[in-house]
Amino acid sequence: MKKQRINGPVEATKSVISKTVISLTATSLFAGTDKNRQTRQCRPRSLKQNAGK
């Protein structure tokens, strides 16, 4: 019983840590894609503006 009581919280903390790590990596990946999209969208616009001028 003592081993189960010790393993319970440890497994719970491990699952929480893994979930937080997955969420952090997902947010960082989404942020990276958003940044790439913004840069891709801004570059053609700046070129068009320069060509128009």
UniProtKB/TrEMBL annotation:
Q: Which domain of life is it from?
A: Bacteria
Name of the protein? Uncharacterized protein
